[in-house]
Amino acid sequence: MDGKVLVLNENYEPLNVCGWRRAVGLLYLGKAVMVERDSQQLHSPSVIMAMPSVIRIAYQIKRPLPRVKLSRESLMARDQHRCQYCGKKSKHLTVDHVIPRERGGTHSWENLVACCPKCNNRKRNRTPQEAGMSLIRRPQQPRFLPYLNFATMRQALQNEVWRDYLEPFAPHLIAE
Q1: pTM of the full predicted structure?
Q2: Is residue 87 part of a domain?
Q3: For the segment 1-14, what is each residue's pLDDT rounded down to a tens digit?
Q4: 50 and 28 assigned to the same domain
């Protein structure tokens, strides 16, 4: 996550990910405190400063808890960019309605899965049972992740330094 900084609320709850310029501005204004440093340094004519990796806002930010929005990006993140019929991992996946919309299937978390074009063509406008196919995992709405969108959270968990701050809020993602 080069140039990215994890922003925590006063109580260490993840709020978002921002660029290092924004993070340095918050630190300079006293609105945030550096929690973790990067190995790189920032140089100015008068100051040398460690590059922030994790900062904590100096005051509690109260926000309503958002819901995980249904989008192609978050659907692919939920399914880990794998076809839910054959398990093939790819960046070129389609979105499949498990129960076709013509047959009363809804456009919802519980009825949408990532699907490779080959399996999508094989299934066509049928249910998985009619096509002789089975789902690897039953589709469901992902659990809420405080403030970070689902795809950002998955990507952020790859950063070892951030992992300790994110794991308490997404233990189910660590286990997958």
Answers
A1: 0.55
A2: yes
A3: 468 899 999 999 88
A4: yes
